[in-house]
Design a protein that fits this description.
The chain is an alpha/beta fold. About 40% of the residues lie in helices and about 20% in strands. The chain has helices at about 25-40, 60-75, 90-95, 95-100, 130-135, 150-160, 175-185, 205-220, 235-245, 270-280, 290-295; strands spanning about 1-5, 5-10, 45, 50, 55-60, 80, 105-110, 115, 145, 165-170, 190-195, 225-230, 250, 260, 265, 285.
Length: about 300
């Protein structure tokens, strides 16, 4: 059977503790969620850091290292570390995780954008922590910066520490940015893209748009490996389409807090199990972590710094 990579994005930096009682914010909870997602069929865990007291997005190296090392002690899944951090973190703060942990895989956001979360305030009126409302409302007047200078610096660090970049593509122009970097020798093959759909400020989560992203990427790079994640209610629709089109899929509480309409996902594993079930209905099996390493040409767990 065909093998595809299922990634579980465990906690992210979008949702806040008031939105779901199941959102992991402590290191141990993130680790437990990653391991359960692995047992359900995920080969990759995409990791963000949070303040364990308040759930506020963080860049704590100690948090990242604790999570990554504890996951490694319990299973062999690939750990993909974010360099997106949160929307308000300085560039160098986001990047320092690369030399410190030297992971197999890490995200590389391929362009600046309006990353707008403020409409969420229309749904949630009460919050657990003071930072939540200010964090969400502040995105109405915020640009998530990823300039060509910072992209060049990120790519240099990835190459130095043999970290495979997962190129985060929020809109089609970011494919052009990545192609420019490739032409300048700042990025090299193999190319792995994550199409991030449905964020206000980026491309809408629609079937036509996914085809457009895939076709544009293939026109720019030729043969690529690609995956899809989508915000909120579009998660399973877009991930299922990705599998049908030959791509991989990312689910998890970073992207969507629900399992179906009105039903909170109690864990990342529930979402992984659902997309694995969908995959098997169309003759696709989830790749193991070692199969994912082979597909993505990763350096291996013996060469990380955690």
């Amino acid at each position: 059977m065909e093998k595809r990579i299922i990634t579980a994005a465990i906690t992210g930096a979008i949702h806040t503790p008031a939105m779901s009682p199941y959102l992991p914010i402590t290191a141990d909870h993130v680790v437990d969620e990653a391991v359960r997602a692995h047992e359900a069929g995920a080969a990759v865990a995409h990791i963000h850091a949070r303040n364990p007291e308040t759930g506020q997005p963080s860049s704590s190296i100690d948090f990242f290292k604790e999570v990554a090392s504890k996951i490694r002690s319990r299973c062999n899944m690939v750990v993909c570390i974010t360099t997106g951090g949160s929307l308000t973190m300085p560039i160098q703060e986001r990047l320092r995780v690369i030399p410190m942990l030297q992971p197999e895989l890490a995200s590389l956001n391929c362009g600046s954008m309006n990353f707008a979360l403020h409409p969420i305030l229309e749904k949630y009126k009460e919050f657990k922590f003071e930072w939540e409302k200010n964090y969400l409302s502040g995105t109405e007047d915020l640009i998530f910066p990823n300039t060509f200078k910072s992209l060049r610096e990120f790519a240099k660090a990835f190459e130095e520490y043999r970290v495979q970049p997962e190129l985060e593509i929020y809109d089609v122009g970011m494919i052009n940015n990545a192609a420019f970097m490739f032409q300048r020798g700042q990025l090299k093959k193999p190319v792995y893209m994550q199409f991030v759909m449905g964020i206000l400020g980026g491309i809408r989560a629609m079937a036509d748009n996914l085809l457009f992203l895939r076709n544009s990427a293939k026109a720019a790079f030729g043969d690529i490996t690609w995956s899809v994640c989508a915000a909120g209610r579009f998660q399973f629709e877009m991930c299922s389409l990705s599998l049908l089109l030959g791509g991989h899929a990312r689910v998890g509480l970073e992207d969507n807090l629900y399992l179906e309409k009105g039903v909170h996902a109690k864990s990342n594993a529930e979402q992984v199990a659902k997309i694995v079930s969908i995959a098997r209905e169309i003759g696709i099996e989830p790749a193991s972590p070692d199969e994912a390493r082979e597909i993505l040409h990763l350096k291996g767990l013996d060469r990380v710094a955690y």
